[in-house]
Amino acid sequence: MRLKIPDQFPIGPHKVKIRWSNADCEKEDAYGYFKYGPNEIVLREDLLTTDPSGGLLIETVIHEVLEAIVCHYDIEMTHQTIQTIGLAMTMFAQRIGFEDVPK
Questions:
Q1: Residue 13 pLDDT
Q2: Is 15 left (phi over 0), alpha (psi -120 to 50) or beta?
């Protein structure tokens, strides 16, 4: 089993899309990133096959969702804080078995 990632999800009244692209993430030198204009999170597609534990994918998704929340609600937060909260939430998700959501 692996983490089920939706094609889109709401953040308040905003619809955030998920797009998979290794090439775009390589340009950004990232596993994923949030783009405000098109309101999308772009994720490396190869995380689905090269991350057997799912931990890096979970951490990346949580991190980018936090980025989207910070952006949409104009929250002042450093990138280091986003990384720390994202990592803590990832450890929590793994602890409760979040990565075993059926596809």
A1: 95
A2: beta
